[in-house]
Amino acid sequence: MSLKKIIAAAIVSSSAIIAGTASAQTIGFSQVGSEGDWRPAFSANMQETASDYGVDLKFANAQGKQEEQLRAVRAFIAQGVDAIIIAPVVVTGWDQVLQEAKEAEIPVFLVDRDVDVEDKSLYVTRISADFNLEGRLAGAWLAAESLGDCKIVELQGTTGSAPAIERNGGFQAVIDQFPAMEIVATQSGDFTTEGGKRVMEAFIKSTNNLEGICASFAHNDNMQLGAIQAMKEAGLNPGEDVLMVSVDYVPAIMDAIAAGDANASVELRSAVGEFIYPVILDYLENPRELDKWIVIPSDLHTAN
Amino acid sequence: MSSVSQPSTPVWKRISQSRAIWPILALVVILIVDGFISPNFYNIRIVEGRLFGNLIDIVYRAVPTALVALGMAIVIGTKGIDLSVGSIIAISGAIIAWRIQAGDNHVVILAYAVIAGGLCGVWNGTLVAFLGIQPIIATLILMVSGRGVGMLINLIYGGTDPSFESAFLQGLSTGSIGYIPTRILLFIAIFIALWLVVRKTALGLFVESVGGNAAASNLAGINARRIIFVSYVICGVMAGWAGMIMTADTHTSDPVSVALYIELDAILAVVIGGGSLMGGRIYLGMTVIGALVIQALTTSILISGLPPEYNLIIKALVVLFVLLLQSDNARKQIVALFRGKHNE
Amino acid sequence: MVAEIDQSACIEMRQISKSFPGVKALDSVDFKLYPGEVHALLGENGAGKSTLIKILTGALERSTGDIWVDHNKCDFRTTGDAQSAGISTVYQEVNLIPAMSVTKNLTLEKISGRFGYVSWRKARTMAREKLKRLNVDIDIEQPVGSYSVAIQQLVAIARALDDDTKVLVLDEPTASLDAQETANLFAIINDLKSKGIAVVFITHFLDQVYAISDRITVLRNGKKVGTDLATNISRKDLIAMMIGRELGDVEAAFSTKGTGATGETVLQANQLGKKRTLDGFDLELKAGEAVGLAGLLGSGRTEMCKLIFGAIKADTGNLVVFGNSTNRTNPRNSLDLGIAFCPEDRKSEGLVGELSIRENIIISMQSKQGWLKPISRKEQERIADEMIASLGIATPDADKPVGQLSGGNQQKVVLARALASSPKILLLDEPTRGIDVGAHAEILTLIRKLCEQGLALLVASSELDEVVASSDRVVVLRDRAKIGELQAGSITRDNIIQMIAGTDNV
């Protein structure tokens, strides 16, 4: 036990010397994994922008396993990093390791997903985008564009997933303010192009060629791209006959917006280093109580 | 020699005794229910030069699943199973996007996609037939790794934008010839070709024989390993065709999520069509009916307006019901239940 | 009018009938069983033995009739009901789980204690006790599948026997046992008998019927032909009761020997063999002769057939077929060379149960032609109908799944398949195993007919009388080696036994 402590102390002091000489902050980042398109881009951005802020980033990919994440965080604690960033794989099971970090006086910042701990003081803050805000932005744009009068078809993400629930919630909250706005059909397209196309085809039949429908809201761009194809094959004009708004702002939807097939997309940023690093560096210089959630702003992009 | 002239069984009796009746009945019931859900369900009109309507959609959307299910029916006939069909679709789709970016002739690319499917089948067939690995494990390998292979292929050309345009391939997938969607015509052509190979040669008999009793088939002179190998290759080729149709449909290669769980739908289609996972029988036509039942179900859920949370539960319940209808045992029990007495 | 219940019987079944759609499987059958007797239940396939047993053990419900167990009227709805009334059954296909240990197999349904807790120590004690009753001493921790069929049979009996077992039904228990194993089993049956247990014994082996049974009941076509003490029924009478025709026919079939005029050599094996399977042997087959293959179970009869056919790959020697030498054969090549093989185990190696009779008949012929040259449906039907007619396969039509046929008819289908591939050399492994007397005679007649048509036959059989009656020449095997041949003049039962027993043992 004591030997362990001595070794840990030695590691801490040696890494403190290195950090001291480089006069840079050392930050450990435990990432969930590398699934999908968005997360690898997020990881790459964090690593690329670290040097801009004089941060020595220690990156650990947990391959989707919580025990890997716990091991990585404990390694960061043993190394005596200045701060730890966690993109948690699940919400529960973090109390113990966060307690260890607190005892080592290393501040912890959450990015992306939330954790569920009794003692909220175990982490400084969560810095992430707000799925609910994305839904609200899309809803607000649509309300403005349709002057508060619009029948909407909705392409949901994977049933039960956090982005699907939150985006739907935010969107619904806004259109509830407008009596003439209503979601007339909603279905899950599983966040895929194929799914979006399949669902929109069925909507086209069940609403008699989208008669009276003024907008399509998709929880991601891929589904919206599928919906655009389905509408074109049915002889409809997406972007003109029907307003098309979705979330993500991937390159393909940019092309579609430029071509007039889609109208708006809310950006889910993967370039978030510029939002995360300043918060952490500022806190390290001047430790104080922060809000428990710092929202990374979402922007809505249109053709203009 | 004993040319006993048998009295031909009455048509209605043959129909009621046929195992084909139950899946067809299920399909009809689903379509009738759809009529109540959506009043204009049966409307068919012509839009953009092709037939347009829910009924057409069901057939149209069922094509990829039906193609995969036909290959699966043959593999299941040998008492095997192929879990990797979704991954094969991902790989053939990725190859299409890659070669289009590379500027190859699109007819040649179609051949690449189908051959890629066949090669995946060669891999599976080698593991199962010649290395003796259990089918579920052997095909699990490609199931797990295949989508990764697809992503690697996307990376060959940078992987930033795997979308493409191809008049030829999209013509096959989403176009139409004389009002009829091309993919339906393509499917009919492939079905006939497969049927000829299975039923007009002795291949089908050999597959059923090997699936029914591999040891006895070997002693009867059939090279069981070769038959099993060939069945996986056919299954791969069918998945390759499905991959072309699905990839051209969405104009993009999406290895991570294309045709997710299609192996389960395909297995279900085979089973609904009367096939047994114990092997020994191939019902090609009924497998297509099975695929139509699944797609009709999916389409009706989409138009029903029910919250998406119910989708999978409803699908599971209906599939369970169809399978119960098919089981002689379960049918008897149900009848006995209604009569309120123990059946003899 | 109700007759008195027989007070000394432990089981009385009266006027039992059972109808299946289209068939009356049992027609007013009476059956009594007394404590401490061995009662043989005999009949051809389809006579109703299985149906009667299934009704007794609760596996089937009777259509009409009554059952008394110890003078109490019983109504079994499940096999569990029958078991709790003291009636236990060991079926022909041993119902054990091969991969599980003997202990687990023996105690499977009895060990789950309170709250699902299993005491393995108790289970082992229970298993040992069960085996001790039968004087079986084996390692109970080994998987059942690692033991011989004979031991498995005993384990199955041990499992069926409970402290309160009154009746034990044994369905074809000796089908896969050799003489020594059968003798052991009989010793155990006699022991059970002395403890007052009634044993119902179903078998095809008439010798065994006389060796062990006290009484015999014969069924035919769902009706009871008669019941009597074994000592009151002669062998000839018994066969007559079972097949319902004059024994003369059967005897005639048994004694039709070939003319002895044999043709040229068609097959010659030179030191063909495989390590640990069968020592290298020499063998010559001539057109128009039937060579018998005699030996005890495990002596290498099946192995010799399979080595010649190429189903087992030889590692020594070679084969000359019609003058062409070959040392690497497989079933497909053998078919091409004109060799056909009917395996011993119809169910696991012979037939594809789900396929129709027609498909089973043409499949060897088809594989010989290759998959690209399918035999037309019409041609298939012609061949199948021809075979059904000429072999006398009892079936309404050729499209019935072969699995639904009786054993004898299945055997004929296996034979039909071999013949449809138009062989010059036919290897038959136990062609009459597990089939009734009538079909037995028909198949022997057929073998003779084939010889006359110029085929060369190699017939492996475990029934000496059959070998003696139908062979022009006999090859004798012992302990996985060929030990000699008997020529036409010297083929007798005694000569073969002497050869198998070994000269120094006489």
Detail the poorly predicted runs of chain C.
Answer: 245-256
Strand order of the largest sheet of chain A: 2-1-3-4-5-11
Shape of chain C: globular
Order of helices and strands of chain A: HEHEHEHEEHEHEHEHEHEHEE
Q: How would a textbook summarize the main sheet of chain C?
A: 6 strands, mixed
Q: What would you note in describing this structure?
A:
The complex is a heterotrimer of chains A (304), B (344) and C (506). By secondary structure, chain A is of the alpha/beta class. Chain A has two domains: 2-129 and 270-297, 3-Layer(aba) Sandwich (Rossmann fold); 131-267, Rossmann fold, CATH 3.40.50.2300. Chain A has ten helices and twelve strands. In chain A, strands 2-1-3-4-5-11 form a six-stranded parallel sheet, sandwiched between helices. Chain A has a six-stranded mixed sheet with strand order 7-6-8-9-10-12, sandwiched between helices. In chain A, helix 9 (251-259) links the parallel strand 9 (243-248) and strand 10 (264-267). In chain A, helix 5 runs parallel beside helix 6 (162-175) and helix 7 crosses helix 8. Chain A is elongated and about 65 Å long. Chain A starts with a helix and ends with a strand. With 344 residues, chain B is mainly α. Chain B has a single domain, classed as ABC transporter involved in vitamin B12 uptake, BtuC (Orthogonal Bundle). Chain B has 15 helices and four strands. In chain B, the strands form two sheets. Chain B has a two-stranded antiparallel sheet. Chain B has a two-stranded antiparallel ribbon with strand order 3-4. The longest helix of chain B has 27 residues, at 224-250. The relative contact order of chain B is 0.18. Mean pLDDT of chain B is 89; it is low at 1-7. Chain C has 506 residues and is an alpha/beta fold. Chain C has helices spanning 49-56, 79-84, 102-107, 120-133, 149-160, 179-194, 206-212, 235-243, 247-255, 301-309, 331-337, 346-350, 357-369, 377-391, 407-420, 437-452, 464-470, 493-501, and strands at residues 11-20, 23-33, 38-42, 64-69, 72-74, 87-90, 167-171, 198-202, 215-220, 223-229, 265-274, 278-286, 290-294, 316-321, 324-326, 339-342, 425-429, 456-460, 473-478, 481-486. In chain C, the strands form four sheets. Chain C has a six-stranded mixed sheet with strand order 6-7-8-3-9-10, sandwiched between helices. A six-stranded mixed sheet of chain C has the order 16-17-18-13-19-20, with helices on both faces. The interface between A and B is medium-sized, with 33 and 34 residues.
